[in-house]
Write a structure and sequence with these properties.
Radius of gyration: 26 Å
Shape: elongated
Distance between the termini: 38 Å
Strand order of the largest sheet: 1-4-2-3
Structural class: mainly alpha
Number of helices: 6
Strand content: 5-15%
Number of strands: 4
Order of helices and strands: EHHHHHEHEE
Largest sheet: 4 strands, antiparallel
Length: 279
């Protein structure tokens, strides 16, 4: 009589034979990028402050408080001139810094990924510049160029709105010199926070994308999700993934809350790590 199994037998994935080290984005690259952007943003805000104070010290500004509305056009001309100057400076800056940042990140991410694969037991892991890698790098350079140039536009818009508001607002905190000084302080805080986020997020995202490419090139298809345990309020969906094994193109990575989606390090402010697994 033929043997009949009492239950369906399922094939289980073989146990891992190698586990790499967590691939951690370079703090040095992130800090370098942040400092480069902050230096230019501070110079821009210092220029805006100086030129605005010149307008405020002019006879036209003094007459404004005697109801001379011509200060409006003077402020607009000054701010438009500043915008044109700093837009060109940020464009030239982005042309140089965006590619340099991506190249630095590429070097550090590739070194980290290959070291992790070597630790997992892979002999002489390779880093080939395939079409996929080239596309990832080019897209990152283009996107970071846009992020950098947008900083000047975003800061300008905040200062421009505040200056125009200072001429008409009934709110004492937004009026006159005090309102403009307030706005400049807020613009400084905004630029610092924005730049910090860009540097951190882009370093982490490029690491995530390149580590995937390097793993695929070396025949490694899986990684373990390592939760960072960082942050005041852990992301529940990331906490639940801790210790789970995923394939690089696992659709489960793109499930759940939109802000939490993606592999380790992809979501904004995600500090989770990817640990290559060899079977």
């Amino acid at each position: 009589m033929a043997f009949k199994a009492s239950r369906v037998r399922q094939r289980r994935a073989p146990e891992p034979i190698g586990r790499g080290k967590p691939i951690i984005p370079s703090a040095a690259v992130e800090i370098w990028y942040r400092k480069q952007m902050l230096s230019l943003a501070k110079a821009m805000l210092a220029d805006y402050k100086e030129q605005i104070h010149k307008v405020l010290a002019s006879n036209v500004a003094k007459n404004f408080y005697a109801h001379d509305a011509s200060i409006n056009s003077l402020f607009q001309a000054t701010l438009n001139s500043l915008q044109q100057r700093w837009s060109k400076l940020f464009e030239a800056f982005a042309d140089k810094i965006a590619p340099e940042f991506v190249d630095r990140t590429d070097g550090a991410a590739t070194t980290a990924a290959l070291h992790s694969l070597s630790t997992a037991g892979l002999k002489q892991p390779v880093a080939t510049y395939t079409e996929g890698v080239r596309q990832t790098l080019q897209a990152s350079k283009t996107y970071n160029h846009t992020l950098i140039t947008n900083i000047s536009q975003e800061v300008h818009e905040k200062v421009f709105s505040a200056v125009m508001l200072s001429l008409t607002s009934p709110n004492p905190e937004e009026q006159g010199i005090a309102g403009i000084s307030n706005a400049l302080r807020k613009a400084t805080d905004f630029s610092e926070d924005r730049i910090k986020l860009i540097a951190k997020d882009q370093t982490s995202k490029i690491y995530s994308a390149l580590s995937d490419e390097r793993m695929i090139q070396n025949g490694v298809e899986e990684f373990e999700w390592m939760h960072s345990s960082a942050g005041k309020v852990p992301r529940q969906s990331h906490l639940e993934k801790n210790g789970e094994i995923f394939k690089i193109n696992d659709p489960r990575l793109w499930e759940g809350p939109k802000a939490d989606q993606g592999p380790p390090g992809w979501a904004i402010n995600c500090r989770c790590r990817k640990v290559p697994i060899i079977r």
